[in-house]
Structures are given as structure tokens and as C-alpha cells.
Design a protein that fits this description.
Radius of gyration of chain B: 19 Å
Largest sheet of chain B: none
Oligomer: heterodimer
Low-confidence stretches of chain A: none
Largest interface: A-B, 68 and 95 residues
Helix content of chain B: over 70%
Number of helices of chain B: 13
Structural class of chain A: mainly alpha
Number of strands of chain B: 0
Number of helices of chain A: 6
Mean pLDDT of chain B: 93
Largest sheet of chain A: none
Shape of chain A: extended
Number of domains of chain B: 2
Strand content of chain B: under 5%
Strand content of chain A: under 5%
Helix content of chain A: over 70%
Distance between the termini of chain A: 41 Å
Order of helices and strands of chain A: HHHHHH
């Protein structure tokens, strides 16, 4: 478990993602795919094809993802600048979140049930 | 003296101290409101209020922490690759559930926010609310939103989802682990995933995968906004 190698590989795929993002944007000026998302995709491909063994990134990557909240504390602290606008609208925002959450939930339940039904029919109702 | 307190090392040390203190408080109380994240954020805000350090100086000092958000998003590939078998078995269902979750969340914000009279400047910050926080911050900045408001909204959404959805699941008597996992993971992110694990292991695993799927799909849909 060489931590330097692990940090290096994670940063490498992050940079790969940023480069790919810039390339895509250069070729298709209206397509902005975030570099981080592309980096995630590239790392997923490298790991699942075993080009990059999982142990080369596992400890550092798991440390980052399982302590995610720590890394967005700086982004959250900035909220004091917007206290006025937030407190003026907080009830409306809460209402929106509540409505949106319930509608998302119902839509997910309906769509997944429908999908499972279609899949089951295709397989002749023999298995799930 | 002031140069020590205004240094990156001090700012990052203080954040870690508050976070570790938050972990201790959470362990003692077990109250979701006292999560290490909330405790550390509130303490840092108090620190800015009572010290001579301005918010922008503190944020500059803490940029060393913020830098890790990008690599963190990339690292979300690691929990996914460990669940490849589960994903292969349920790919269509996970994809459909996460896509519907991302779409409905975005479009309810676009349609309902103006109806409720929510300030136009807030809408861009609200759009990525179904996405996991680090990805949501990116999307929000891209759309011209305010990252701090996005973090607040994503955390509020996660808490509300984790309270409301388990009761809806019980009322509607949903037993399918896939539906439980998807509905919690793609609306309530990490907190929802923890709730899904309380239902059962498969629901939790599906939730942790759908959290990443929903984040990625939200980023892709946001491309067209």
C-alpha cells in the first residue's frame, strides 16, 4: 500500500478526465461534460478491465469517499453570506424539496415497477 | 500572531479539530442533526463571526481541502467497481430508477420553483439537488448557481428524503429491495443510503450505486440546460 502511488493514480485519472473534457469541448463546442465525471468513468473502465488493479487506488479513494462530508465543509461555510436570502425563502425552499422528493419517489417506484414487469414478461415469467 | 491564525495550516487544523469534535458529539448523541459535517460547519461559522478573520480569508485558507472534491468524485468509481456483479444483474432497473429520479427532481425544480415564487437566482443552485454533494457543487457552479446554497439544499434534501421516504415505503408496503434502494439512494444520497441499509443489505448496496448513477446522470442532463 504505497500512498503516494495511490494519490498519484487518483490525480492522474482526474487529470485524464479534465483533458478528455477539454478535448470533447474543443470538438463539440456545445458539449460540456465535467472532467470529474469523465475521470470517474475512465477510472471505472480501468478498474473493471483490471488495467489498473483496485489496490492501487483503494485506500486513498475509500478514505476520500467515506469521509466525503469533510471535503465540502469549505463550500458549506460560505452559506453565512446568503443567510438573508435563504431565511427569507426557507419555507418555500422546504416546500419545494418536500414536493419534489415525494414526486421523485412516486415516479421512481412506478418506473421501476413497470421496468421489472416488462423484464419479467420478456423472460417468460420464469424468473425475476 | 495574526499571520499564524490566518494561515492555511491553522485553518485546516481548525476544520479537522471541529470535524473530529463533531464525530465525538455524534457518537455520544446519535442525533442526525449533530453530524460531524453540521457541527464543524456551524463551529467554523461561529469562528468567523467572533474572530477577526473574514470569510473570504478563511475560504482561501481552506482551499487546500476544497481541492480534493475533484479527486473525490473520481474515486466514486471504487465503491462502484466492487458492486459490478450487482450492477450487471440489475443494470436496467438501476439505470431507469436513477434516470427518472434525476429527471423528476430537475423538472420539479424548474416547474414548481417559479410557482412557489422562489427567487430566480436560487433556481440554478436548486437544480442539482438530487445529486450527491460534490457533483452537485460542480453542476451548480457550471449553471451559475451559488455553491454554498447548493450544499445547504442538497443536505436539506437528503435529510427530508431520509425522513419522508422510509415512511412512504412502509405506508405503500413496498418490499422490493431494488425499489427501496433506488428511491432512497437517488433522492437522499448518503443519508438515504444509510437508511436503505437499515431495510436490508441489497437495498443499501443498490442505494450506494444509484447515488453515483443519479449524480452522473444529473450532470449529463444539466449539460442541456
Amino acid at each position: 500500500m504505497n500512498l503516494f502511488r495511490q494519490i498519484f493514480f487518483i490525480l492522474l485519472f482526474y487529470v485524464f478526465g479534465e483533458i478528455l473534457s477539454a478535448l470533447v469541448l474543443a470538438i463539440f463546442p456545445s458539449v460540456y461534460l465535467p472532467g470529474t465525471i469523465l475521470g470517474l468513468g475512465l477510472l471505472l473502465v480501468a478498474l473493471s478491465t483490471k488495467i489498473l488493479p483496485k489496490k492501487e487506488v483503494e485506500s486513498v479513494g475509500t478514505f476520500l469517499t467515506s469521509n466525503m462530508a469533510f471535503f465540502f465543509i469549505p463550500a458549506a461555510v460560505g452559506v453565512i453570506e446568503y443567510f438573508d436570502i435563504l431565511s427569507a425563502q426557507i419555507l418555500k425552499i422546504l416546500a419545494l424539496i418536500l414536493i419534489s422528493t415525494i414526486l421523485s419517489f412516486l415516479a421512481i417506484v412506478a418506473s421501476v415497477k413497470l421496468t421489472l414487469g416488462i423484464l419479467r414478461k420478456r423472460e417468460g415469467g420464469t424468473s425475476e | 500572531m495574526s499571520s499564524i491564525f490566518g494561515s492555511q495550516a491553522f485553518g485546516i487544523m481548525l476544520t479537522m479539530l471541529f470535524y473530529v469534535f463533531g464525530q465525538w458529539v455524534y457518537k455520544k448523541t446519535k442525533l442526525p442533526f449533530f453530524s460531524p459535517f453540521i457541527v464543524a460547519t456551524v463551529l467554523l461559522i461561529l469562528y468567523v463571526e467572533i474572530s477577526h478573520i473574514t470569510l473570504s480569508d478563511l475560504l482561501t485558507d481552506l482551499s487546500g481541502i476544497h481541492v480534493f472534491l475533484g479527486p473525490l468524485i473520481v474515486s466514486l468509481a471504487i465503491p462502484i467497481v466492487g458492486k459490478m456483479d450487482l450492477i450487471k444483474r440489475n443494470f436496467v432497473v438501476i439505470f431507469v430508477g436513477s434516470l427518472v429520479g434525476a429527471l423528476v427532481s430537475i423538472f420539479t425544480v424548474l416547474v414548481i420553483a417559479p410557482m412557489l415564487g422562489i427567487d430566480e437566482t436560487l433556481v440554478a443552485s436548486l437544480i442539482p439537488k438530487a445529486s450527491t454533494t460534490p457533483i452537485a457543487i460542480e453542476i451548480s457552479e457550471r449553471l451559475g448557481g451559488i455553491r454554498a446554497i447548493t450544499v445547504a439544499v442538497v443536505v436539506l434534501s437528503a435529510v427530508i428524503g431520509a425522513v419522508v421516504i422510509p415512511s412512504l415505503i412502509k405506508v405503500l408496503r413496498i418490499k422490493d429491495a431494488r425499489i427501496i434502494g433506488l428511491s432512497l439512494g437517488s433522492t437522499s444520497h448518503a443519508i438515504g443510503t444509510a437508511k436503505a441499509f437499515e431495510f436490508d443489505q441489497e437495498a443499501g448496496a443498490i442505494a450506494s450505486v444509484s447515488l453515483v448513477f443519479t449524480g452522473v446522470l444529473t450532470a449529463i442532463i444539466a449539460m442541456f440546460l
